[in-house]
Each structure stands twice: as C-alpha cells, then as structure tokens.
TrEMBL record:
It comes from Paracoccus maritimus. GO terms for molecular function: transaminase activity. This is Aminotransferase class I/II-fold pyridoxal phosphate-dependent enzyme. InterPro entries: LL-DAP_aminotransferase, Orn/Lys/Arg_deCO2ase_major_dom, PyrdxlP-dep_Trfase, PyrdxlP-dep_Trfase_major, PyrdxlP-dep_Trfase_small. The keyword Transferase applies. Residues 306-531, 576-762 form the Orn/Lys/Arg decarboxylases family 1 pyridoxal-P attachment site domain. Its cofactor is pyridoxal 5'-phosphate. The keyword Lyase does not apply.
Length: 923
C-alpha cells in the first residue's frame, strides 16, 4: 500500500475497491465500504480467521472500520453504539455474531429498510427477526409506514450529556406522531455543514449553545463538502457568541428547504437583531423537549402536505352521482363495458375514481384557484423560491407562450437566443413581437450550438440604444440550461443588462433545470434564486457607491469600453424575472406537468391582469387533475428528498464520466465531452477544463460555478461517437435503442446525449457501460476481421464524421420588408401570416433552383419555420433571408426529420412580388 492509500485509509478490499480518491462522493464511498465489509464478514464466517487468508481478511476489516469511523458520525444508522458493538465483536473474535450483525447493517443500508422500521443490531436489543428488503415490499406496504428522517443536533457534548439528550428526545415521542426520526449529534459548525451536505436524511437542524467552531474530523473526501459550503476566513473570524446564528444562516443558504431551530441562552433583544436565515423558531435557554419535538414534526409536516393530491384522494372515496360530462368519471364507462375491460385492469380503479370535471366537492379550479390548487401552488412557490407559481397541464411550450403573451405587446422588441425551443418563436408570432435573434457560440466540431455570450447580448442592446429604440426593448429571453447542459451566469447576465436598461423583463426557459433548486451549486445559477439575491444586493449601500463610481467612469465611454466592462446595475433597477420549468422532464410529474415561477416586483401593479388573461387563453377549461396532483406530489418530494435524489443523479453521471474516461477500449472509440470541449477558454476564466481527468482524477472545481460565464451541467453527459463510424442518429436508433433498448433524446451529427435524472440508478449506469463495452468489442472484432477495403471505408466514415463537419450557420437577417430601419429586429408575425396566402409563396429545390438563384445574387426569404431534428430549433424563421451558409448546412444535414420542409416540393419561400408589395405598403 503506497503513502497516498495509507493517508486515505484505503486498501484494495478483495480486489473490488479503489482508493478514496477514485470516488466522487463520500456517499458512494460509504455504500461500497459497507458492501466490502459485509463480503469480508461472510468470508470470515465461512473460512474462519486462521491462516494467512484469514489474517489478511481481519486486517482488511480493521482498515474498513478505520475508514468508516469518521464517516459514520454523520449518520444515525447504524449509530455509534451499534458501530462500536460490531467493532467489539471483531476484536473479541466472535465471528458468527460479527458476520450476522454486519450483514444486517449492510443490507439495511443498501435496501433502505432502516428508513421504515427499527433494525436491531446489538445483542442488548435481543435476537432480531429477518426483515424484508425495501424493493420487495409492495407500494401499499411502503405507503403504510411512517416516513423516517434524521435531525442534526449541533452541540459539543460529552458521552454522558449526549446520552441524556438522546433519552429526552426518545421520551418525547408519541404513538400518534406522523413521522419518526433519529438524532445525529455533531460538535461543531463545520461538522454541521458537512452533515447537511453529506447526510441526505437530515430534515431539521437544532443548533444548541455549546457548539464549537472546528471539526475534529480530517478526512479529505469530507473536507470537500466543507470547502463548498463556507468561506473559511469568514468562519474563522467569528466570535463564539456568533457560532449559533452563523450556523443557522449557513444552513439556510446551503439547503434552504431544511428547518432550523436555535436554542440559545442569550437575551431575546440580542437575538432579535441578528440574521438567523430561515430559522423557524428560537428556544430561549430551555429544555422543553416535547415542544422541540412537536416543532420538528410540524416543520416537516408543512412540507409533507399535498393540498390538492389529498383533496383528490378524498374526493375519490366519496359516493358520487355523475351527471356531468366525462363518461369515464368514476370508471362507469369502463366497468360496464364488454370490450375495454383491459384498460381498467391496466390502470386500476383509482385513476378513474379520481377523474372528474367537477371543481366542487373539495376540489378546485385551475383557472380560478381558491382552494387546494391555490395552496398547492403556494407550496410550490415556497419550494422553488418564487413569489408566485402557476401550474400548467399542457407542457412548458404553453408556459412559454403564456409568459410572452402576458408581457409582450405588438411592436415590443424582444432579444431571443436563436436556438431556443420552437415554442418561443411561435410565442413571438402570437404576441406580435419584433424579434432580435442573438447567436450562440458555435461548436462546429460537434455540430451543436453553445449559449449566447454576455458580450453579444450587450452589443444588441447598445445597438438598439444608439438607434433610439431602447425604450421599445421589453424582454431578454434565454434558455438555462440548454439541452446540451450549458448554464448561464444568470446574475451577471441580468445585472449587466439592467445596467443598460433598468426595467428589462427576463424569461429564463429552465425546462431542463427544474431540479437545480435542490443542489447548492446549481441553485446559484437558477432564475428564482438569482432574482432574490439580486434584489437584496441592489439595496446594499455599497452598491450605490459602486454604481455611481462606474457611471462617472463611463460617462463619455465608447461602446467598446462598455462591452469590455463588467457593468453594475443601478440601485433603482426593477427585478422582473420569470422561469418556466418542465417538472415532468427532470422531476416527478406526469407528462406535460410544468410550472411558471414568477419573481417580478411589478407583477401586482402592472402584469397580473394581463398574465391572468394569457393564462386563460392557453389553459384548458378541462385540465387533467392527475397531472395537477402529480405536480403537488412532485413538489413534496423535492422539498423532502430533492437534495438526496439530485446528489445521486450527479454521482451517477460522474461515475459514467470516469468509467468511460478510464476504460482503454471505450476511450478508443468514444469521448465524453468536457468543459473545455463545450465551453471556449474565453468563457472559463477559472481555467477548469473537466470534472474528471484520467491522469489527475476528480477536479474539485465547484468554485468555478460562482465565476465562469458558462458552466456545464454534470448530469448531462455528451458522448462523441464519431470514432465508431456511425452518425449520432444511427447510433441512437439502430445501436442503442433497437439493439440494446437504451432510450435517449438528443443527438448531433457525431454525438449522443445521455441525460441522467433523479430516477437513474447505479445499476442503470452499469448497464449502459456494459452496452458501450459490448459495442466497442464488436467494433474491435469487426475491424480485426475487416478486409483492407472495408477498413478504408470505416476510416473514411470516421474522417467524415470527425473532420469533415459542416460549419454551423449564424442567424442571417430579416428581410427589409419585415424590418424597421438598420437595427436587426424583425416583425416575425407579419411574415408568418403573409405565408398563409399560398399565392405569396413558392417552393424551390435545395439542390438546383435554390442554389442557382443564390449564386445569381437573388435574395430569397423563408416563408416557414424550418426545424431539423437534430438540432431541434429553427434554422430558418418566416421573414429570414436564406444565406449560402444556411443552404450549405441544410444540404449537409443527414437527418430524416425536418419540420417545415417538403422533400417533394422543396423549401418554401416568399415570391419577389409578395416582398415588393409588403415594402410598398410600408412606404
């Protein structure tokens, strides 16, 4: 064992485990260490401890106990008493008892059984019966159990004091309690921060007056959590009297969904003047454990409540006579049928018992919510950090149109990233916006676009300002994060834009980013969290001075200097932010379940009525109650276990990165695209290039999330597959889906995207790796047996996919018939409806007629949205001039699905006569 392995407390255990440095997270490390300890315990039970093999296994078991000891202090199960008991059994040579106890503990941890029943481990508890694995239980059986969680208590106690504290909390329990919890007691502020990031079971934190500052643990993989959670210099500067309040503040900043309680012996007046973050209650120098116990349960119950789902369940139990629309209500049209009984058998009775078009009987109206739907939306606003949240049952496409219609009036100018979802483009048509399309930076090598640099956004705003049109600029619309995982520095974008126009509205399409609220690093780049932070920052006195100084410096500055300056928003800027999220895409919800989150200082006074009308316009009068209920339940889940699920999702994606990067055969044909591959150097001021490097290992690089212009969502893994000789679409359809049953959404010409989600398991990752290895082995065999000509053909395909990639075109421009002056905004609505008259349009073949006309210098204008899949966004919009670059790109596309294009007729364009007529009418 080398020095590094010794420091990490790691040694290969039965050739199954690598050193600690190979693990991305302590959670995975803990799970694997317990599995290894179980394997060793079973081997010792079978073969004994004698001989070289037995002594080696004993030494490995002792090392595992040493490695687990500091980690287990942050978890309630198996707990210090049981852990010490297992260690004692090993030291005393009681191998059968040791093996039995370790096996039970490991099995309970892996299956999660300890979270629904007490698992007896020590002999003092008596002989325990075998328990069922969680996965073996029926959903009904699991639903009957009381949910389990853990409470982190922060206090530096001796053994006697800790026993006293635990026994008092134990006595406070009552049979009627809706939940059951176990305490985890840690001594210091630093341990509290490690605990809330490491232990996903924690739902409440109790900060007591005796806490220390520093942790006595010094395990590198745990210290990573600490470095992400706090500023060491600021923490070190604290006075002991501030430890409790600072712990509450930091817990709220890192995991705002957790309940915090402060027990203090300081005066009420002193405490009242302090910032305690989201502290639910302060207890003054008392040991009323029943009151503390009841508050803990009440806090968790406030997140557990699902107003609409509960109302729908109660409605389904009522005997009801149905005399309204919907024969399927109560399942009557199915149970009485002789031909569709299989549908009833497939879905079960509850979904039909809960189906109705009624809004009474304890239910509510989505269009005018006053009861449980309103409460459910208020709970969602709390969970996602918004001022108002609205549910949608027909997807984020509709959410986007609602927000655009509510805020945009005909003639308003909107800055839009041109590779956003098609719903935004159609929303611009409906609202009558004048659109300024902004170009994302291209990733030509991988046939995909990145995101819009802040410099591009500022340039467009300054261009409009110079032409006297800034007053018409209403909104900036961006996608965060993109389909490929690129995430904006949301705070920088909004602040620099507000520095140019202080009343801009921002719409952030976070369709793929709903989960981000529930991870500290991700959260800082979400629209709602940034809106709250920016509003708070604008009020700071130092902000006024900084803004005034910058204004003086830039008084006579040229645009170039403004572009090169990190701008400061004025103190009186209005924070007006909207985010649309596809809950069904990244969290738990039925398909088409989405939310609109609002953080708009002017919503009540300016936008509320227009928003209500837009919501009425696009929302069905017969919304699906099952979708609404699933949104309610999905909110409950993320408030109570979102952190755990997102953390596991990140771990899964990171494991996939490491497996592909370190496997010699996989790395021969595949490459996981890194931060450096997807984000040019100019936008990565931190210099961080990858999350994992096969030579340097894991890069503890979360700091770059606070600084870089763009970061990469680690849960999305883009795999370059050009080295296999298959294009992305072929690899997706014929290899992954048809042959191996692996489903994915997104491809480019030479890449595929693997999106992990909160349901992704380690087994799913293992299967994907097995499939990729199998594909690589088949390629090896194929090429090994290939003739010279077959090998040349393969190399040519690879060369074409990797080297001969058509350049991605930028947005060209709107034709002058749809523009007003020299600025880039275009009247997309006029162009869209002009094409309704077929006499205004013609069709041109891509290979002949269109090419010849362009070569002859004719200006051709698209009459339709042209949307190839991939990339899945319009490469042409109505009114856009067709450039040679766009034609070249379209001719090079080898995808079968291009919306708006007629292969039998060609590309739809406006006739020259129609364009001249529009220009003449404009005068």
């Amino acid at each position: 064992m080398n020095d590094q392995q010794h420091r990490d407390g790691a040694k290969p255990i039965a050739n199954k485990l690598s050193r600690i440095g190979d693990y991305y997270s302590a959670t995975q490390l803990r799970s694997d260490r317990w599995s290894a300890l179980r394997d060793i315990a079973e081997e010792l039970s079978l073969h004994g401890v004698e001989g070289r093999r037995g002594r080696k296994r004993l030494a490995e078991a002792e090392e595992l106990f040493e490695a687990l000891a500091p980690i287990e202090t942050y978890w309630a199960f198996p707990g210090a008493t049981a852990f010490a008991y297992m260690r004692r059994l090993l030291d005393q040579g009681k191998i059968p008892d040791f093996s039995h106890t370790v096996r039970r503990a490991a099995r309970a941890l892996i299956s999660g059984a300890y979270r629904r029943r007490t698992i007896q481990l020590t002999s003092e508890d008596g002989e325990a019966e075998d328990f069922e694995d969680e996965v073996a239980l029926s959903p009904d059986a699991r639903a009957l159990g009381r949910p389990y969680f853990e409470v982190l208590i922060v206090d530096d106690l001796n053994e006697h004091q800790e026993r006293w504290l635990r026994s008092n909390l134990q006595r406070a329990r009552r049979p009627e309690d809706a939940f059951v919890y176990e305490p985890v007691i840690v001594p210091s502020l630093e341990d509290a921060l490690i605990g809330i990031l490491f232990n996903y079971n924690v739902q409440a934190v109790v900060v007591r007056p005796g806490l220390a500052l520093k942790s006595r643990n010094n395990v590198e993989i745990l210290n990573k959590y600490l470095r992400r959670a706090s500023d060491e210099e600021e923490v070190d500067a604290l006075h002991p009297d501030e430890y409790g309040a600072e712990t509450c503040r930091l817990v709220h900043r890192i995991r705002p969904e957790l309940d915090t309680y402060l027990v203090t012996d300081r005066s009420a007046e002193t405490i009242a003047a302090m910032d305690l973050g989201g502290c639910r209650r302060v207890f003054y120098n008392q040991e009323d454990f029943l009151e503390l116990h009841l508050n803990i349960l009440r806090g968790v119950n406030s997140r557990f409540k699902t107003p609409f789902f509960t109302a729908l369940k109660e409605y389904s139990k009522q005997p009801t006579g149905v005399f309204h629309a919907m024969p399927i209500s109560r399942g009557k049209s199915i149970t009485r049928s002789h031909w569709i009984q299989d549908m009833g058998a497939f879905y079960g009775p509850n979904i039909f018992l809960a189906e109705t078009s009624a809004t009474s009987g304890g239910l509510d109206s989505l269009l005018e919510p006053r009861g449980p739907i309103k409460k459910a939306q208020e709970s969602a606003a709390r969970a996602f950090g918004s001022k108002q949240t609205f549910f949608a049952t027909n997807g984020t496409s509709t959410c986007n149109k609602i927000v655009v219609q509510a805020l945009i009036r005909p003639g308003d100018i909107v800055l839009v990233d041109r590779d956003c979802h098609k719903s935004h483009h159609y929303g611009m048509v409906l609202a009558g916006a004048n659109v300024v399309y902004m170009d994302s930076y291209p990733l030509h090598q991988y046939s995909m676009y990145g995101a819009v640099p802040i410099r591009e956004i500022k340039h467009k705003l300054l261009e409009l300002k110079a032409e006297g049109k800034l007053d018409r600029v209403r909104m900036v619309l961006l996608t965060n994060c993109t389909f490929d995982g690129l995430i904006y520095n949301v705070e920088r974008v909004m602040e620099e834009c507000l520095a140019i126009k202080k009343d801009l509205v921002f719409l952030w399409d976070e369709a793929w980013f709903a989960f981000a609220r529930f991870n500290p690093a991700f959260r800082q780049r979400t629209a709602m969290a940034t809106a709250a932070n920016l509003r708070h920052a604008l009020r700071a006195p130092e902000r006024v001075h900084a803004w005034e100084a910058q204004q003086e410096k830039l008084k006579d500055a040229e645009d170039q200097e403004v572009l090169n300056t990190r701008l400061i928003a004025p103190p009186d800027a209005r924070v007006r932010v909207y985010a649309t999220q596809s809950t069904h895409k990244t969290l738990t919800s039925l398909r088409q379940g989405s939310m609109i989150h609002v953080y708009d200082q002017d919503f009540k006074g300016e936008t509320e009525q227009a928003f209500h009308e837009a919501y009425m316009t696009h929302t069905s009068t017969s919304p699906n109650y099952q979708i609404i209920a699933s949104l309610d339940v999905g909110r409950r889940q993320v408030e109570l276990e979102g952190y755990e699920f997102v953390q596991r999702q990140i771990e899964s994606a990171m494991s996939l990165r490491r497996a592909i990067g370190t496997h010699p055969l996989l790395s021969k044909y595949f490459k996981v695209l890194t931060l450096a591959d997807m984000i040019p150097d100019d936008y990565r001021e931190s210099g961080v290039e990858a999350y994992y490097d096969s030579k340097r290992g894991w890069q503890d690089s979360w700091d770059h999330w606070a600084t870089d212009e763009f970061v990469l969502d680690p849960t999305k893994v883009t795999l370059a597959v050009g080295g296999t000789g298959w294009d992305g679409d072929t690899f997706k359809t014929q290899i992954l889906m048809d042959k191996h049953g692996i489903q994915i959404n997104k491809t480019s010409r030479n890449s595929v995207l693997f999106m992990t989600n909160i349901g992704t398991t380690r087994s799913s990752i293992a299967y994907l790796i097995e499939v990729l290895v199998s594909i690589a082995k088949d390629l090896e065999d194929l090429l090994d047996d290939a003739s010279k000509m077959e090998r040349r053909s393969f190399d040519a395909r690879v060369h074409s996919l990797v080297e001969q990639v058509p350049p991605l075109p930028d947005f060209s421009r709107f034709h002058t018939a749809f523009r007003d002056g020299d600025t880039p905004e275009g009247d997309i609505r006029s162009a869209f409806f002009l094409a309704y008259d077929e006499d205004n349009c013609d069709y041109l073949d891509l290979d002949q007629a269109l090419k010849e006309k362009l070569e002859n210098g004719e200006e051709l204008v698209s009459a339709s949205f042209i949307i190839p899949y991939p990339p899945g966004f319009p490469i042409l919009v109505p009114g856009q001039v067709i450039s040679r670059e766009i034609l070249t790109f379209m001719r090079a596309l080898d995808v079968s699905e291009i919306h708006g294009y007629r292969p039998d007729l060609g590309l739809r364009v406006f006739t020259a006569e129609a364009l001249k007529r529009v220009e003449k009418e404009k005068g």
